């Protein structure tokens, strides 16, 4: 049996009839830059996320970059973030000449650890903190906000994997900080037909600045208040995403149901010596989107051989992430070493993501679990 990590063709076949006329219409009108579709999409995402403003941008990476720019983060400023995330989270900080300060993660959630963060806050004058809501679950926002109140820093949420994910108080990712940064990379829960991203904020002054920076820092054509960039989201992408947004809640639910099926099967098949299933921290708080499972990530023994075995058996899987930031070659100049962040280092050796996309069948889920069982019991 073949079980890809993600099957976007299955999703597209259901939406084809709705999406194609939208694309066709934009092409007929030749309305590619900053059009009606983008404005509609921004309005609809703001409403969905529950934030006052939403600004479409060129990618999740650029959402982070433009947020840092809007908050005047630049040369020599310290910005703290988790050492365990997709590269963009830290790369954007370094690209602006700011200094990334890495922080360890919590064992259970893989999200930024507030104790580790507080050690960094005591050591450096940190201007901004970027928590990541990794794999689709919101970070410890109570802890982060109390540290923000104590130490005073800007908070930029990396919500790239967590659109619609709710904290235990029912507030959605992207509403806790100065800005929330989203990605529409095709493998995210809301994925476009190419690159795309978005920034949310509840602050009108920050919104105005983001809006201006997106278009080369210009409010009036050819007059530039700031040095911005071309960070615009294509109208075609916005049109596609606006259709998909209507299905997002049902896709989240499909992923959650699949995650629960995995949890149950792993428990029934007595695999707890080999496989640790992910913990949904806010499940009992009553919020619907306690986890949106952009990835279903398990911790396993003998990870690299399991990965090889699953690949041979036709099962898509991936390691998010095999090397924490503080051990990356490009960050050697920061002077970190092995052992600095033991929780993240351990995670990087144990984690593996298995397919959880909504269109998976029960047969496929069972095949994945049975194949993992076969790997550990084959003698
Ligand atoms: C995907 C992702 C990004 C970057 O988004 P792009 O749209 O690919 O630029 C940033 N941070 C995290 C955690 C991501 O998963």
Describe this structure in words.
This protein is of the alpha/beta class and 379 residues long. The protein contains twelve helices and twelve strands. The protein has helices at 8-29, 36-49, 60-70, 88-95, 114-123, 141-151, 204-214, 235-245, 248-268, 303-312, 342-350, 362-377; strands at 53-57, 78-82, 99-103, 126-130, 154-158, 179-183, 197-201, 218-220, 223-224, 275-276, 296-300, 351-354. The strands form three sheets. A seven-stranded mixed sheet has the order 1-7-6-5-4-2-3, with helices on both faces. The protein is globular, with a radius of gyration of 21 Å. The chain starts with 7 loop residues before the first helix and ends with a helix. The model has no long low-confidence stretch (mean pLDDT 97). The structure holds pyridoxal-5'-phosphate (PLP). Pyridoxal-5'-phosphate is lined by residues 59-61, 85-86, 88-89, 132, 158, 160-161, 183, 185, 195, 197.
What portion of the residues fall into strands of 2 or more residues? 5-15%
How many helices in DSSP terms?
A: 12
Average pLDDT score: 97
| SS-derived structural category | alpha/beta
Task: Compile the SSE list and pairings.
Layout: H1 8-29, H2 36-49, E1 53-57, H3 60-70, E2 78-82, H4 88-95, E3 99-103, H5 114-123, E4 126-130, H6 141-151, E5 154-158, E6 179-183, E7 197-201, H7 204-214, E8 218-220, E9 223-224, H8 235-245, H9 248-268, E10 275-276, E11 296-300, H10 303-312, H11 342-350, E12 351-354, H12 362-377
Parallel strand pairs: 2-3, 2-4, 4-5, 5-6
Antiparallel strand pairs: 1-7, 6-7, 8-9, 10-11, 11-12
Helix pairs in contact: 1-8, 2-8, 3-4, 3-7, 9-12
